[in-house]
Amino acid sequence: MKAIILATNNTNKVREFREMLAGGDIEVLPLKEAGIDADIEETGNTFEENALIKARAICKMTGKPALADDSGLCVDYLDGAPGVYSSRFMGEDTPYSEKNAAIIEKLSGVDGDERTAAFKCCMALVMPDGREFVTSGEMKGIIADKPAGENGFGYDPIVFLPEYGRTSAQLSPDEKNAISHRGEALRAMVDIIKDNI
Question: Coil, strand, or helix at residue 59?
């Protein structure tokens, strides 16, 4: 089995990656399971820069292929915020229920088309021989008037998907994986992994 170090300890991300790679011959090892204790600072200005920073660091530490992603919510009315600062918006330890409430409050009185937003993801695979691959994905929606749904995590409860009539947090895991920003980026990356590892 081929092993890739996944540059995260986020249990939700690990679950999503494993669900999407299930049944293949690729073993996904998050940092903790790989015995790596690293907190890599995301200093990039874009999702792609941050994904590459993390993947390069883990590949250098382990000498193994490393896969990292950076993703976030970009609200058009807020000029793309919180964007690359999505996890750090209002502080990393602030519960997402508070972050979600703050975004809804910032859009108070804003209607319809002005509430557009998108989840964006960039994924980077860095190989020990120096090769680097980047894929990306996007899931568009609008900011809901109030949170809804128990599935998903982060900002999922406030991103309403008009074509589904539900928020991202109201989708089943299979439904979400089929259309999500991370799912889109990962499907493209799986083909690269199969051809290069």
Answer: helix
Q: For residue 94, what are the CA distances in angstroms to 31, 64, 82, 88, 91?
A: 23, 34, 14, 8, 5
Known catalytic residue: 70? yes
* 48, 127, 133, 136: CA torsion to nearest 10: -50
Q: Which of 70, 111, 129, 145 is catalytic?
A: 70
Write the CATH number for 65.
3.90.950.10
What's the DSSP call for residue 115? G
Number of domains in the chain: 1
Q: How would you write the pLDDT of the chain (197 residues) with one tens digit per residue?
A: 678 899 987 887 788 778 777 777 778 889 988 888 888 888 999 999 999 999 999 999 999 999 999 999 999 999 999 999 998 899 989 999 999 999 999 999 998 889 999 999 999 999 999 999 999 999 999 999 999 999 878 999 999 999 999 999 999 988 888 899 988 998 898 888 878 87
Q: Which domain holds residue 28?
A: 2-196
